[in-house]
Amino acid sequence: MKDRTTTAPPVLDVRDVTVRFAGLTALDGVSFTVVPGSVHALIGPNGAGKSTCFNVLSGLCRPAEGTVSLGDTELTRLAPHRIAALGVARTFQNIVTTHGTVADNLMLGRHALSRAGFAASALRLPSAVREQREHLGRAREIAELTGLGAHFDTPVALLSYGDRKRVELARALCLEPRVLLLDEPVAGMNAAERARTAEVVGELRAELGLSVVLVEHDMGLVMRLADDVTVLDFGRRIAHGTPDEVRQDPEVLRAYLGTDATGEDAA
Amino acid sequence: MSDRLLGALTRRRAWLLLLAVVLCLPPFYLDAFWLRIGLFSMAAAIGAVGLALLSGTAGQLSLGHAFFLAVGAYGYAWFAGEPGPGLPPALAAVLAVLLAGTAGGLFSPVAARVKGIYLGIATLALVFLGHHVLLTADSVTGGFNGRSVPPLTLGGFTFAETDPELTVLGVPFGAEERLWFLGLALFAFTWFTARGLLRSRPGRALAALRDSETAAAVMGVDVARHRSAAFVVSSMYAGLAGVLLALAFRRVVPDYFSLVLSVDYLAMIVIGGLGSVAGATAGAVFVTALPLLMTRYADQLPLVAAPGSSEGAVGPTEAARYLYGAAIVLVLLYAPDGLHGLARRARDRVRRSRTPATGTDVPPPPQPSADARPKEHTP
Fold first, then answer.
1. Which among A44, A47, A94, A119 would be 20 to 30 A from B200, CA to CA?
2. Which segments of B114-174 does DSSP mark as H helices, in order?
3. What residues of chain B lie within 8 A of the CB of A99, using their CB?
C-alpha cells in the first residue's frame, strides 16, 4: 500500500481559469494557490462558480482557458480518474453514494490504490483476496476515524443525512488524498453534526497534513477552519486573504449584502 | 463473535455441500425430458449471470446477448467440426468463449462510450447483423439449416450416448446424464467467478458507475475501461452459455438466436432481480423451464391447446410467454428487486421472528428495502 501521508502535499495552483457554458461565463480568470497543508476556503454567494471550480479541479469540467497544476503535474488535461490517482479526492454538495454498505462505499475509495483486475477477482486469486483484506482493514480504520465505525456494515440508504455526508468524507479519505476538496461538508447538518465534522476536518489536517479546499456557506465554520479565503462572485475573484481580511473587505460585503449595504457601510 | 462467524461459515459450507449433492441426484432419478430442462436452465443461467453483470451491476442495457450466445455456439461448432479446423472439442470450447469475448471487445469502442438504454439500441444492430451473417455465410454456419454440433470430449471421455458406454449405479449414462454434470461444473464455475467479481474491486467499480458515473470517476474509476471490460466479460459468459446450449441442442440454427432470445435474457434478469447472481439464476430457470413444462403438460392445462393443434386456442409456447410477461409486470410493480429481493425479505422475516426465541441479543443487520433505495437502476 502506498503511503502518501509522510510527504508534504504539493502546491495546488489555479491560474487564470475561465469556464464558459454556452455564453455564460461561470469562471472568469480565477487564480488562487493552495498552500500545502493549509485549509483554503472558497466562498461566495450562490452561483458564484464555487462548484464549477471544484469540477475543474477534479477534472469533470475542462476550462476554456487557464491551468491547474498539482506540484509539477498539469491537471487540466487529465481525466478525473487520473486526477484521483494523483491524490485529489472530493466530496459532493449533494450526497452521491452508491448502493450497498458503508464498507462498499469506502472500498470504492480504495479503488485507485488497489490493483486487482477482472480476471484476478473473478478467479479469486490469493493476491486479490489478500489485497482486498488489507484495504478493508484500512477502510475500517478510516470509518472509526470519521465516527462511522458502528455503521461499517450498514447499508448507506439506512443512515441519517449527517452520517451519509460523513460517508462521503470517509470515502474521499480512503483515497489517502494529498488534497481534499470538500463541497459544503456541513450543509443541512444540525449543530452537533457540524461541530463533529469541523472537528474531524481539523484533526485530519493536523494528523495527515493534507491540503483542504473547502466550499462552505457556514461562515462560522469557514472563519474557524480556514487559513486562506478566496471569495468568488459571478465567476470572478473579488477578494482574497486571511479570514479576518476578507471579513472586512468592502467588495465582499457588497457581494453578500447588496449595494445598499455598501452604501450604508461606506457612509 | 468470531465463534458465530465460524459457525455461520461452517453452516454455509454444509449448505453448499448439501446443495451440490442434491444437484447431482437428478440424472439418477429423472428422465431425459427433465434433464434437458435442467440443462437448458443451466445454460440460460450462465448467460443470464453475464447479462446481470452488465445490465444489473454496470447499468448497461444490452439487447445483443443473443449475438454473443450465437458466437459461442457457432464458434464451438466451427472450431470443433467439419467444415472448420476440427480442433479437439475441449480446446474448441475454450476458443469459442474467447471468440465471444473478442467479439465483445471489438464492440467495446461503442460499449465504452454509450451508456444505459442507448447501448441497448446500439446492440440491437448486433442481433440483426448476426442473424443475417448466420443465414448467409453458408460455408461456415450452414445457412438456414444450421450445422450439427460435435460432442465434447475430455481426455477420451465423450459427452454423448456412447464412447465409452457408461452405467453408474445401474443407470445408463447417455448424453443428457453426462451433459448434466458438465453443465453443473460450468454453472458452478460461473457462480464462483461472478460472485468473486461482484464482491471485489471491479464489481464495486461497476456498481458505482451505474449509481453515479461522476462519483465513480472522481473516486479513480476509469469509466470507459470498466464499461468495455464489463461488456467483454458479459460476452464471455454469453459465449460459455452458447457452447453449453449448442452441446445440449446438438444442432445450432440461426432462428434460435433472434431478438426474442435477447429479450428472454432481459426477462430473466428482471424477474430474478437486477444485479444478483442468485436472482439471475432463478429468473433463468423460470423463463427457460416454463415454456417447456407447459408444452409437456398442455393437455392437462385449461385454456391451453395441445401442441400442434390448430383450434385457435393459445398454444403452450405463447401461453408461457403471456405468463412470464405477466410475471415481469408483477415484478416491476410489486417487487422491483425481483425474486432475489423477495427471497431476501422472506429470509429476514424468518430470522427476525426467530431471534427472540433463540435469545441472541444482536439484531440482524437491517437490509435496505426496495423503497429505501436512493436511486433506481438505469435499465
1. A94
2. 117-136, 138-141
3. 207, 211, 368, 373-375
Helix B223-249 / helix B65-80 crossing angle, nearest 10 deg: 60
pLDDT digits (tens, 9 = 90+) for A197-208: 888 888 888 888
A111 touches chain B (CB under 8 A): yes
Tell me, yes or no, if A116 comes closer than 8 A to chain B by beta carbon.
Answer: yes
The pLDDT tens digits of the residues spanning A47-77 come to 888 888 999 999 998 888 889 989 888 888 8
ipTM, interface predicted TM-score of the complex: 0.84
- The residues on B that touch A, with CB distances below 8 Å, are 192-194, 196-197, 200-205, 207-208, 210-212, 214-223, 229, 233, 365-368, 372-375
pTM: 0.84
Q: Is residue B5 part of a domain?
A: no
Among A118, A152, A160, pick the best mutation site for testing chain B contact (most B Cβ within 10 A).
Answer: A118
Domain with B82 in it: what CATH number? 1.10.3470
Domain count, chain B: 1
Contact A186, A192 (CB under 8 A): no
Q: Is residue B379 part of a domain?
A: no
Q: Is B140 contained in some domain?
A: yes
Domains in chain A, CATH or no CATH each: 12-87+177-266 (3.40.50.300)
